[in-house]
Design a protein that fits this description.
With 683 residues, this protein is an alpha/beta fold. The protein is built from 23 helices and 20 strands.
């Protein structure tokens, strides 16, 4: 991730890197230039030196030849002395062709401060010779030799070379710094300013910022880049503005009717959900489902605009009629809802209220110079007499309106007697929220036997509601109600605590531990604290975790796989085993199955029931058994009622069998006697 301008380490800053790059490049350029100049000067020096030596030898070759011809020592000495008079000549010697030296002189080396440098560049000295000729036959008489001290000849060159080596790199660095200053002024500093301006852009509202174009860059590429970024920000602003408008409109349309601006069905249910629990003591809520009669005729006579006008007028009148305490919503094309809190929920009082509503709507309204009447019919439902929640209250009002539409009376009430199942669910819902679980809920136990030797391998705990008036209620009646009422967590903890306590006591009485399975609902799997409470229950009852098994359904897992997966992993980490109940009836994919920490599959009893007569059911059962074994799981068959079914399941290598063939669900005391009797039987 890129750092902010203020967080960039100094050595990583573009300015520092640019400065170092410029300095190094300038230094290298200066060194190269100085080296080229030194090499050029050295070549010129060598040429001047050689030219000087050749000139001197040429001037004195004739006297030297004469001295050699005459073997004149004095003249030879004068020739050699003349050569030594030349600056830089270290020694001179005139030799005869016989090898005899006729004259030789050497000068003491002149001090030179750069001798070490010149010796490396030019060598200590340079030797030059010239053959001497004489006589009529121009025979070789000898040779003259001189040696030049390069330190003397090259002193000025070395000084200039040293100066170049120092001055040229420094000059190049100075030029590089000037270039760097210009780059910093016209590129780096504006770039840094723009970067800091970009850092101030609010990611949540990028469109609110515009980048300043640095002064002096209004017409160049840099200014064009900043202008392009500003155009991008402008387009983002336009896009976000349109998006916000679209989102606002979508949000409005998801909650309100576009024509009347009244809440729609979704918003009505939301507001009713907040209102119903807060009704004052002794008050009820009446909900009227109001449907305009012959709305299609209004559309045909007045057109679509006339129909919209009729809807707006009806909504306006209902709002005025509802007052500050009422709720008005548009449910459909020609349907409205009016909710009013009332103290007198008797039918005579509600009929008067409904008739007043019809009278309010029946007044004509003007559209395009035409008077248009509005007629309606009303269906009425009352909370809490007819419904215990917002959704059911609206449904009851709609059902009541359907009866009004079919009859002659435009006002109809919901008949609660037509829906005894709903009444029962509402009653149980109210009672389960206040019931004492310990007094009315019991737990039965059904054995699971080993398919090979027929002994009890484990138990399944089955909760029952022993209702004082309705009798014994199975879990299929009250579990979904407990989930809807939010009581399932407390009920589930009660069952787990009772079962774990019972099994810990039986472990001591039987002398061995026996695994017990407890059903867990989908709502419990959505509770992120379920595993923590389970751990507390195991610790409180001192039941080993490996003796507890949780049974879950495929549907409970599929509803929210990620949440269930994490929770089951934590449960499995406690040492508790996990089984999939009613396998084959849900929609869990194999990818889900292999990712979950499952120990056991339970084949739904519906497949076992037709095992012997339906080949398809037999194939399904065999496939589930093979699937479970391939994944390292044990397999249980539920609903085993006949010996033939048990034999067939043994043939298919099913591990455990459960059903009325072996035992019905037993009360705790009966289950203990059953286990004790089995335990005492000889093997």
């Amino acid at each position: 991730m890129a750092a902010d301008a203020s967080q960039i380490v100094w050595r990583n800053r573009l300015t520092v890197r640019l400065l170092l790059l410029t300095a190094v490049a300038s230094l290298l350029i200066g060194i190269v230039i100085a080296a080229i100049q030194v090499v050029s000067d050295m070549h010129a020096l060598r040429q001047r030196r050689d030219a000087l030596a050749e000139q001197a030898l040429t001037l004195l070759s004739e006297p030297a030849s004469e001295a050699a011809y005459n073997i004149d020592d004095a003249m030879a000495s004068r020739v050699v002395s003349g050569l030594l008079a030349i600056p830089g000549v270290r020694s001179a010697e005139l030799r005869l062709s016989t090898g005899e030296t006729l004259a030789s002189q050497r000068r003491v080396d002149k001090p030179a401060r750069w001798r070490g440098v010149s010796d490396r560049l030019l060598g200590p000295e340079t030797r030059h010779t010239r053959a001497l000729y004489g006589g009529s036959n121009r025979e070789v008489l000898g040779e003259i030799e001189l040696r030049i001290d390069n330190a003397v000849i090259g002193e000025e060159f070395v000084q200039r070379a040293v100066t170049l080596a120092l001055i040229e790199p420094l000059r190049a660095i100075m030029l590089g710094l000037v270039v760097f200053a210009l780059l910093y002024r016209f590129l780096t500093r504006p770039l840094l300013t723009t970067m800091r301006a970009l850092e101030r852009v609010d990611p949540r509202e990028p469109e609110m910022t515009r980048l300043p174009i640095p002064r002096g860059h209004e017409s160049d590429e840099f200014g064009g880049s900043v202008a392009a970024v500003n155009r991008l920000l402008d387009s983002i602003r336009d896009s976000l503005s349109k998006r916000r408008e679209a989102e606002a409109r979508a949000t409005f349309l998801s909650q309100y009717d576009e024509i009347t601006k009244l809440p729609n069905r979704r918003m009505l249910l939301m507001r009713l959900g907040h209102l119903l629990p807060t009704l004052a003591e002794g008050r009820q809520l009446v909900l009227m489902h109001i449907d305009l009669i012959d709305f299609k005729g209004i559309n045909q006579h007045l057109g679509e605009s006339g129909g919209d006008a009729a809807m707006r007028e009806a909504g306006r009148r209902l709002l005025a009629h509802a007052g500050s305490e009422g709720l008005v919503a548009r449910l459909a094309d020609d349907s409205f809802a009016l909710a009013l809190p009332v103290r007198d929920g008797s039918r005579p009082a509600l009929r008067i209220l409904a008739q007043a509503t019809l009278d309010t709507l029946a007044q004509t309204f003007s559209h395009q110079e035409r008077e248009v009447p509005l007629h309606a019919a009303i269906g009425i439902a009352v909370f809490p007499d007819d419904a215990d929640g917002a959704e059911t209250l609206v449904q009851c009002a709609e059902q009541a309106y359907a009866r009004a539409e079919r009859g002659s009376d435009p006002i109809r009430f919901h008949e609660a007697g037509l829906d005894s199942e709903q009444r029962l669910r509402r009653r149980l819902g109210r009672e389960i929220a206040a019931v004492d679980f310990d007094e009315q809920f019991i737990v039965d136990y059904q054995p699971l036997v080993d398919a090979d030797h027929g002994q009890t391998a484990s138990l399944e705990a089955l909760v029952r509601w022993r209702h004082p008036e309705l009798g014994l209620l199975p879990p299929g009646v009250f579990i979904s109600i407990a989930e809807q009422r939010g009581s399932i967590g407390a009920l589930g903890d009660f069952v787990l605590l009772r079962v774990c306590s019972q099994m810990a006591a039986w472990k001591a009485g039987l002398g061995r531990g026996l695994r017990v399975a407890v059903n867990v609902s989908a709502a419990q799997l959505r509770d992120p604290k379920f595993d923590a409470r389970l751990a507390t229950i195991l610790e409180t009852t001192a039941l080993p975790a490996q003796l507890l098994e949780l049974e879950i359904t495929e549907t409970a897992v599929v509803e929210n796989f990620d949440l269930a997966h994490g929770l089951l992993q934590r449960v499995r980490a406690l040492g508790v085993s996990i089984a999939i109940d009613d396998f084959g009836t849900g929609h869990a994919s194999l990818s889900y199955l292999k990712r979950l920490p499952i120990d056991k599959l339970k084949i739904d009893g519906s497949f076992v029931r037709e095992l012997l007569v339906d080949p398809d059911d037999a194939k399904i059962v065999r496939a589930i058994i093979n699937l479970g074994h391939s994944l390292g799981m044990r397999v249980v068959a539920e609903g085993v009622e006949t010996v033939a079914q048990a034999d067939r399941l043994r043939e298919m290598r099913c591990d455990l069998l459960q059903g009325y063939l072996f035992s019905r669900p037993l009360a705790a005391a009966d289950a203990f006697r059953y286990l004790l009797r089995e335990h005492k039987q000889p093997a």
